[in-house]
Design brief:
With 319 residues, this protein is of the alpha/beta class. The chain has helices spanning 17-23, 38-44, 62-67, 86-91, 104-119, 122-130, 154-165, 179-185, 192-198, 218-221, 241-249, 289-307; strands at 2-5, 27-30, 50-53, 73-76, 95-97, 146-150, 169-173, 188-189, 201-204, 229-232, 255-258, 278-280, 314-316. It has two domains: 2-102 and 288-316, NAD(P)-binding Rossmann-like Domain (Rossmann fold, 3-Layer(aba) Sandwich); 104-280, 3-Layer(aba) Sandwich (Rossmann fold), CATH 3.40.50.
Length: 319
């Protein structure tokens, strides 16, 4: 059994208990550099039956999967699958698994941190004091404010629980409403236009699918209140970034907290960098020691279960 980790950069797996577990399964080769070049990725996968995908920037395209003739399983560390051509994987007899929920609490905490930091203008206050000022401007309190959650999967529902703990009113929209869940967690589903028009904070938690591409577009951004804040810890492709930049520049919304972007890392000259009403973090919401340990263990467990003939957390079965 040849197991390849083509993209452990920066290192997350190497030297961990999960790495030791892998060595008990087969021969393991860990690459500590990027595999963003399709030719490099295809070469690294040569002869491998199993691949562990560490970084979302590594794209398992149809061409790469066609070349990986021995590959039977891609075990993704993380929830997102938008970097794998799932149809091509199924067509080539490759099972794809992921690790749902491993980062849910961490990402939800980061989401709430962005909500607090943007609402309370913490970055501006810190900078003002450091520059010799004393910027004691009035800022909103969160208790009683309406949080509109778009997407009520594992992360969205964690955010809902945390927001309820802060005394916020939580409303939500999703493609597949779960009424028992909303009753249990104490939030209401609204139609999308009403959620956008009435929410003080809108937080995105959808998967990156073709249907959700630029979900928050110019028309939907125009529905938001001038005092509203947008938070995105899901995927950068969910927002029309040009439209968001325009809305922020023209103060059509109050601010944004972003952890994800269409292009990562942010390229030089990206307009978000110059905007004072945006708080930026480097796709780090799920980066905690607990997430790394739990997620890697789940990724390896998915391999073990696949080899036993009882695959778990399958997102794309083989044809």
């Amino acid at each position: 059994m040849r197991i390849v980790v083509p993209d452990d950069n920066p290192p997350a797996l190497k030297g961990t208990p999960a790495h030791d577990r892998l060595r008990r399964i087969g021969d393991v080769e860990v690459y500590d550099s990027d595999a963003t070049d399709p030719a490099v990725l295809a070469e690294r996968l040569t002869g491998a039956q199993v691949a562990i995908n560490i970084r979302g920037r590594t794209n398992f395209t149809a061409e790469v999967l066609k070349a990986a003739t021995a590959l039977k399983l891609i075990s993704i560390w993380g929830t997102g699958t938008d970097n794998v051509d799932l149809k091509a994987a199924s067509a080539h007899g490759i099972t794809v698994t992921n690790t749902p929920g491993a980062n849910a609490v961490a990402v939800a905490e980061h989401t709430v941190a962005l909500v607090l930091a943007v609402t309370k203008r913490l970055l501006q206050s810190d900078q003002g004091v450091r520059q010799g000022g004393w910027p004691r401007s009035l800022v909103p309190q969160l208790r009683g404010k309406r949080l509109g959650i778009i997407g009520t999967g594992l992360i969205g529902r964690e955010v809902a629980g945390m927001a309820k703990g802060l005394g916020m009113e939580v409303v939500a929209w999703t493609y597949h409403p779960d009424l028992p869940l909303s009753s249990r967690l104490g939030f209401r589903y609204l139609d999308l236009p009403e959620l956008l028009r009435t929410s003080d904070i809108v937080s995105l938690h959808l998967r990156a699918t073709a249907e959700a591409k630029q979900f928050l577009n110019k028309e939907r951004l125009a529905l938001l209140k001038p005092s509203a804040i947008v938070v995105n810890t899901a995927r950068g492709t969910l927002i029309d970034e040009a439209a968001l930049v325009q809305a922020l520049k023209e103060n059509k919304i109050a601010g944004a907290g972003l952890d994800v972007y269409e292009t990562e890392p942010l390229p030089p000259g990206n307009p978000f960098v110059a905007l004072p009403n945006v708080l930026l973090t480097p796709h780090a919401a799920g980066m905690t020691p607990e997430v790394i340990q739990t997620g890697l263990a789940m990724a390896v467990e998915n391999i073990e279960n696949f080899l036993r003939g009882k695959p778990t957390h399958v997102v794309a079965p083989p044809r």
